[in-house]
């Protein structure tokens, strides 16, 4: 496994295991199998309602806690200083751990400044090793970093070959924020798994379109957290460190970028209205 070093010195595996949309009843088994396969980075969130399953799998594992990197995220219902503080403790309880390696603000809506202060204090108390954000645009990251004095360690955003977040990526590099991809397979949209460009490149290396898509992001210095509940695919997804794409391969895949989200434009006014409606 390869690692990146975050802006506060914490090491983070470049490839992790995501449990978004994994039913609570399946999460424990899926995470247990992922750990058996070799994953050491597990990504969950309060919204996913499966932190308990992750915690149970970790507790049953023979692995030392120091070998693992566990991420969760504060959902915006829990934003605001007091609510965020309480939700961090609740996540720790559900995950059966004394600390989280990374805690993110899940959405750039609500009172995320107060939430960020709660995260900072939790980090100082040893409950969290690194703090960051998710779904933040470059301007929101710049604003948060400047006015709090604490640069987020990570920004987890929708990133895949069809939406490569190139401008956001450049600002993350400039700020020293690690770019992390959610949805690296585009959730199968645009015929991702049979894409002609990815498939043709994969044939040269004996790899699938999915493996090529992951390798591309890794070579762009992006952390990836592919999700699956099938052990054979877990094995396939982690098997991406034994080949390297050429510059020509990289250039070909770069042309797949549409510059647009396939799911939700977090910068659009209607998205803000949607989240506000959720909170009412």
Automatic annotation (TrEMBL):
Domain of life: Bacteria
Residue ranges constituting the NADP-dependent oxidoreductase domain according to the UniProt record: 20-256
InterPro entries, alphabetized: AKR (IPR020471), Aldo/ket_reductase_CS (IPR018170), NAD(P)_OxRdtase_dom_sf (IPR036812), NADP_OxRdtase_dom (IPR023210)
EC number: 1.1.1.-
One of the Pfam families matching this protein, by short name: Aldo_ket_red
Protein name: Aldo/keto reductase
GO MF terms held by the record: oxidoreductase activity
Swiss-Prot/TrEMBL keywords: NADP, Oxidoreductase
Similarity comment text for this entry: Belongs to the aldo/keto reductase family.
Keyword Coiled coil among UniProt keywords: no
């Amino acid at each position: 496994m390869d690692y990146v070093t975050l802006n506060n010195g914490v090491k983070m595996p470049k490839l992790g295991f995501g449990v978004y949309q994994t039913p609570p009843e399946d999460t424990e088994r899926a995470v247990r199998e992922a750990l058996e396969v070799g994953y050491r980075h597990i990504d969950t969130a309060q919204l996913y309602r499966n932190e308990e399953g992750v915690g149970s799998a970790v507790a049953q594992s023979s692995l030392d806690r120091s070998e693992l990197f566990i991420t969760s995220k504060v959902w915006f219902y829990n934003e605001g200083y007091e609510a965020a503080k309480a939700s961090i403790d609740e996540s720790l309880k559900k995950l059966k751990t004394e600390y989280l390696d990374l805690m993110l603000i899940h959405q750039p809506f609500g009172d995320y400044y107060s939430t960020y202060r709660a995260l900072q204090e939790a980090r100082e108390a040893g409950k969290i090793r690194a703090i960051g954000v998710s779904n933040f645009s470059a301007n929101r990251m710049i604003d948060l970093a400047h006015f709090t004095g604490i640069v987020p360690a990570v920004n987890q955003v929708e990133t895949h070959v069809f939406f490569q977040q190139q401008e956001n990526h450049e600002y993350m590099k400039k700020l020293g924020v690690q770019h992390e991809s959610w949805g690296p397979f585009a959730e199968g949209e645009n015929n991702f798994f049979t894409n002609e460009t990815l498939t043709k490149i994969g044939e040269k290396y004996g790899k699938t379109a999915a493996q090529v898509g992951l390798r591309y992001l890794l070579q762009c210095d992006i952390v990836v957290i592919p999700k699956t509940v099938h052990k054979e695919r877990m094995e396939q997804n982690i098997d991406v460190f034994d080949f390297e794409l050429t510059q020509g391969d990289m250039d070909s895949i770069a042309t797949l970028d549409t510059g647009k989200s396939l799911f939700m434009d977090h910068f659009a006014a209607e998205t803000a209205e949607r989240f506000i409606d959720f909170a009412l």
